[in-house]
Amino acid sequence: MKKLILGIPSKGRLMEQAQELLVKAGYRIERIGSERGYRGRLIGLDDIEVAFLSAQDIASGLKSGAVDLGITGEDLLRETIAPDDKVADVVLRLNFGPADVVVGVPDFWADVAQMADLDDVARQFYSVHGRRLRVATKYFNLTRRFFAAKGVTGYRIFESLGATEGAPAAGSAELIVDITTSGATLKANHLKILDDGLILKSCAVLAARRLPAKDERVKHLVRELSNHSI
Q1: How far is CA 193 from CA 78, 107, 141, 183, 222, in A?
Q2: What's the CATH number where 56 sits?
Q3: What is the pLDDT along the chain (230 residues), one digit of tens a residue?
Q4: For the chain, how many structural domains are there in total?
Q5: Per the confidence metrics, is the pTM higher than 0.90?
Q6: For labelling, which of 12, 120, 154, 187 has a CA lying 20 to 30 Å from the CA of 4?
């Protein structure tokens, strides 16, 4: 039987919640080597090796084939693998780690409520300043796909390396695409979410590459986790 590689987040609340769910479903992770090692075994299913990786690396590993299945954020998965790319897909949505990926604009843009308004602002901004609107984000691909679907073209992406929500106030961008849970941080930075600016309602997901998703071990894991999810 071919060994499968299961990616588990290596740190943070996502790791804790993923391991709690696995334990509830009757599975135990046994680390190989030291307690700080990055490999392990999933006790309860045959020939499943665990790789402890960052959530981003799990998404990348699903695309490259370095892991067969893994628990990661849906936002990271869709940033890395487009919905129409069937190399890997969600096999189970897990009820923890919720976050919305949204378009946020300055709250003093009183006449900007929807993405169509943003396209108008982009044209006006270019005529006055001679450059495109800057969008601060870590989500390059999600932003491009969403803006294209909404017909917004007059922008360029500014890579956010720090606190994205602070970019407009700092003068390094005019608007942002970022994740939010309550919206409180956006409000604190004088930003508002566009009425149709919800890009993705994300949560933790179990995703698998196309062929492993058909494996009976994966199907069994999905059944057990779905019975014990929060």
Answers
A1: 20, 9, 19, 8, 34
A2: 3.40.190.10
A3: 789 999 999 999 999 999 999 999 999 998 887 666 689 999 999 899 999 999 999 999 999 999 999 999 999 999 999 999 999 999 999 989 999 999 999 999 999 999 999 999 999 999 999 999 999 999 999 999 999 999 999 999 999 988 899 999 999 999 999 999 999 999 999 999 999 999 999 999 999 999 999 999 999 999 999 998 76
A4: 2
A5: yes
A6: 12
